[in-house]
Every structure is written in structure tokens, then in C-alpha cells.
Amino acid sequence: MKMKTLPWEGGCRCGQVRFKVSAAPLLTMACHCTGCQRMTASAYSLSVAIPSEGFAVTRGDPAIGGLHGATRHYFCPHCMSWMFTRPEGMDWFVNLRATMLDDAGWFTPFIETWTSEKLQWATTPAVHSYETVPAMEDYEGLLQGYAESVAKQEA
Questions:
Q1: What are phi and psi of 12, to 5 degrees?
Q2: Percent of the chain that is helix, strand, coil (3-state, to 5)
Q3: Average of pLDDT values for 123-133?
Q4: InterPro entries, alphabetically (predicted)?
């Protein structure tokens, strides 16, 4: 399915926190780590990496949840929906939970991470799989590969 034209909007389950995306995603992913399994009560979390300058909270004040560490997980303080993450040391992007978008029908994970912790039956259509996370030197190729994949779909 083709990606919707920007800007995109989304929000938590109750609607008290809303956001706007004005920059194209860098990468889409599914994370199978046990932390994501517990925070989503599911087999994995689905994320869209958005450049930080292209993401803005437009209503409400998200609260930090999860482990309250250097990586900051943001939730709606009312309905407790896990909305986005700002990973430690990577302030250049926001890891938005894809299902928080008003229309996530276009979403497909390009990579999947932490497959070493995945539930045996959990599968995704991701093009690239990693037992943990990609090496830092792999990201440039992944970002380029994702951009090329999106361009093919849009053509």
C-alpha cells in the first residue's frame, strides 16, 4: 500500500495527546524484544523512525513511562498508550509507534530486531532481520534501502 501524503496526524487511544508528522520516515521496524512485548502486551512493537524536526506533539503532555532510563518512552498520562520513544544518544529521530497514526494502513516493517527474543510463532514481512539490533555501520545502507523501497512503491 502507498504511503499517505504528509503531514500525518495521530494520537493516543483516548485522544488527549495528539501529534503531527511533517517529515518522511527514515525506517519502519518491528521489535521482538521482551521489553516491547511487555509494554505492548503483544508479540512485538511496530515503529516508524521519524526525523526529530518532523515530529511535534500538538495537544497534551506525554508522560515518561517504561523503565524511566536514558531511553525515554512516552505515554499518554490518561489512557497510558505507549506513543513514542526517544532512544538514548539518538536525538535525531523519534521512534513513533506506527499504530498511533490515524491511518497506519500503509505501514509494513522494513526491518525486525531482537529476533533472538521473539515468540516462535511471531512472523513479519520485514526485509531484514537481526538477532539483536543492526550494527551502527549498517544503518546508512538500511536507510538508503528503505528510501529506495518507498520510491518503488510510490512509482
A1: -75, 180
A2: 25, 30, 45
A3: 97
A4: CENP-V/GFA (IPR006913), Mss4-like_sf (IPR011057)
